[in-house]
Amino acid sequence: QNGKTDEDILYEQYSLEPLWEKLYIFLYKEKKQMDMNDKQKREASLYQSFEKEFGRPLSPFEVETLSMWLDEDQQSPELILAALKEAVLSAKVNFRYIDRILFEWKRNGIRTPQEAAEHGRKYRMYQKQKKENTPVTPSKDLPFYNWLEEE
Known about the structure:
The structure is a single chain. It is elongated, with a radius of gyration of 32 Å. It has helices at 17-54, 60-71, 77-89, 95-107, 113-133; strands spanning 2-4, 10-12. It starts with a strand and ends in an 18-residue tail after the last helix. A two-stranded antiparallel sheet has the order 1-2. By secondary structure, the protein is mostly helical.
């Protein structure tokens, strides 16, 4: 912008606002692209983790279920991995069990792997106490008959 002062001195003025806007837009798009690449890497790693734990390639149905957890249920890859870990600890490595874990966590408001680990620890302790406090009922004494030694 050009102008004159009261004393007839010429001056010029520049605005850097368009530059800042372009830099902001460029950096925002770049960050968004990096976030997308990071998300894709985390999801690929998720599929590899499942295949490793299952010891085989995933079936098309399992791949679809996994993508459904990510896209429709909006579960984070980290939370899905925590559910896989919980299933491995319970020695029940199947998609139906993992789906039930994720459903229970969602119902209980669990959103982070840390909350999930704490919930799993409490659940296992509850199950252990429940098992220890269950009274053992003695079986009825049945008469013993030794058929090898007849009288």
